[in-house]
Write a structure and sequence with these properties.
This protein is mainly α and about 70 residues long. It has one helix and no strands. It has a domain of about 30 residues.
Amino acid sequence: MKLKETYGRAKSRRRESEVERAVSPVIGIILMIAVTVVIAVVVAAISYGLISVVTTTPRAALILEGCVAGGKI
């Protein structure tokens, strides 16, 4: 009788550990898919112009007063 109980307990422990080990890869895959979807949404939003990345270029103006075009100095 003890042999059956020991075998049954070992079998149930093995099942629990197998289930616990199987949960980790599933969570990892779900997280990888979630990260991939977020990256795809950000790239799509930037490419369609929903999120604008604006870089302004510096501008300069040169104003000359008292000069004549083509004149001699």
